[in-house]
Amino acid sequence: MSALPQTKSSSLDQVFSSANGFSKVSVNQQEIVKIIHKKSGMVMQGMCQFEEGFEGLYPLFRGLSEAGKPKNLSLRFSAADKTAYFHYPQANHQDVSLFFAELILLLQKEVKFKNVLKEVIINRNHFKAEQYLLQNSMMD
User: Fold this and answer.
1) Which of 2, 27, 31, 52 is the least buried, fewest Cβ under 10 Å from its Cβ?
2) Contact criterion met (CB below 8 Å) for 2 and 102
3) What pLDDT does residue 24 have?
4) CA 140, CA 117: separation in Å to the nearest integer?
5) Is the pTM of this model over 0.90?
6) What is the C-alpha to C-alpha distance for residues 107 and 114, in angstroms, rounded to an integer?
7) For the chain, what is the largest distance between any 2 Cα atoms, rounded to a whole number of angstroms?
8) Among candidates 40, 86, 44, which has minimal Cα distance to 61?
9) Could you tell me the fold of the domain covering 11-114?
10) CB 39: neighbour CB atoms within 10 A?
């Protein structure tokens, strides 16, 4: 049983539906990771590389990738360039495609959550600053 949430479809499924593919996964029109894969004989191989500004997602990706990873999926990580290299037998394409779709969905949710949290913190700081100014003006 997978530790990742189950998803029915994803834009990533469409990327892995062809033998060779290139995709950039985005959140709010910001590209967070690019995925390149190709068929080589009976094996699919590729890489996931985090875009500039989103390298901080790499450790989360690496940790989550161990949760429910298909047995025939081989992952190799390069911390230096924030990239994961993968390969798997073509026969396991559907399982691996679903796994990556679920993993990318979690990363997209993380980016959205961080954006919302950032806005909440900014609004809270503005409120505190206004409250401080109001209190000071009432004391004069």
Assistant:
1) 52
2) yes
3) 74
4) 35
5) no
6) 11
7) 79
8) 86
9) Alpha-Beta Plaits (3.30.70)
10) 15
